[in-house]
Design a protein that fits this description.
Low-confidence stretches: none
CATH class: Alpha Beta
Helix content: 10-25%
Radius of gyration: 15 Å
Distance between the termini: 34 Å
Order of helices and strands: HEEHEEEE
Structural class: alpha+beta
Strand content: 35-45%
CATH topology: Thiol Ester Dehydrase, Chain A
């Protein structure tokens, strides 16, 4: 599991998430930030509450609904996006749109279903020339469900 030491007062809800991310329903997938730390390494813990009324469940194994893997990757990427935006904010840097550019080492280890709460731990490994490199993992009931490394690139 990635480090889970965060300032207990650093969490926030959907209103602040909407200020940081450009996504909106049905593609704003992070429900809450549990905690964040930007120094010495940028890390975040977020929550995605998985509910049965989400649009992809009507067609993705409807008799046995499972959160699609691509949606789980997007949840990890959005969590990392929050880190990026907060880091730019703190440094007083101009913020750009960041787009998922590469996914490596994705592992889907447990099904995620309606009623589950996916807890994501993400960290920024480094930034180089307008790109952020991240590592993230999602857990359900303390059991790892997904892990991946990925890169996001900025566009003005």
């Amino acid at each position: 599991m990635l480090d889970t030491q965060y300032d207990p007062d650093s969490g926030f809800g959907i209103d602040r998430i909407r200020q940081l991310l450009p996504h909106r329903y049905p593609f704003l997938l992070v429900d809450r930030v549990l905690g964040v730390t930007l120094k010495p390494e940028a890390r975040i813990a977020t929550v995605k509450n998985v509910t049965a009324n989400e649009p992809y469940f009507t067609g993705h194994f409807p008799e046995h609904p499972v959160l699609p893997g691509v949606i789980m990757i997007e949840i990890l990427a959005q969590s990392a996006g929050i880190i990026t935006m907060l880091t730019h904010e703190e440094l007083g840097q101009e913020t750009h749109q960041f787009y998922l550019a590469k996914v490596d080492n994705a592992r889907f280890l447990r099904l995620v279903q309606p009623g589950d709460q996916l807890i994501v731990h993400a960290m920024q490994k480094r930034t180089i020339r307008g790109m952020g490199i991240y590592s993230a993992a999602g857990y359900v009931d303390g059991e790892i469900a997904i892990s991946a490394d990925f890169m996001c690139a900025a566009r003005a």
